[in-house]
Specification:
Layout: H1 5-30, H2 34-54, H3 57-68
Helix pairs in contact: 1-2
Length: 99
């Protein structure tokens, strides 16, 4: 995974808040408060993982724009437009086999 400058800044901002929370969660786990410690640890991990792997702003913008465009203007693969018949070959046993 290659990170750009803005991605690194975003990761650093997430870590600034996630590391103290994870530290507090570990202390709560050691103190015997398992539910609170585990819950806070999950939140701390989610603060770092979700923005990096699931919430890609460029992908969200692409999905939003493609959802707003009419079906005729959407380009799924960038090549020829889709037809009702996905296969370009002739089916076995069709009338075109007979001469």
């Amino acid at each position: 995974m290659r990170l750009g400058v803005l991605d690194m800044i975003g990761l650093a901002a997430s870590l600034i808040f996630a590391i103290p929370l994870a530290n507090y969660a570990v202390f709560r786990l050691i103190a015997g408060e398992v539910a609170l410690g585990a819950g806070l640890l999950v939140v701390a991990v989610a603060m770092v993982v979700l923005p990096q792997y699931f919430l890609d702003p460029a992908q969200i913008l692409r999905r939003l724009i493609s959802g707003l465009l009419p079906r005729q203007l959407r380009s799924d693969d960038g090549s020829a437009p889709k037809t009702d018949d996905d296969s370009g070959s002739v089916a076995v046993g069709s009338d075109s086999d007979e001469r």
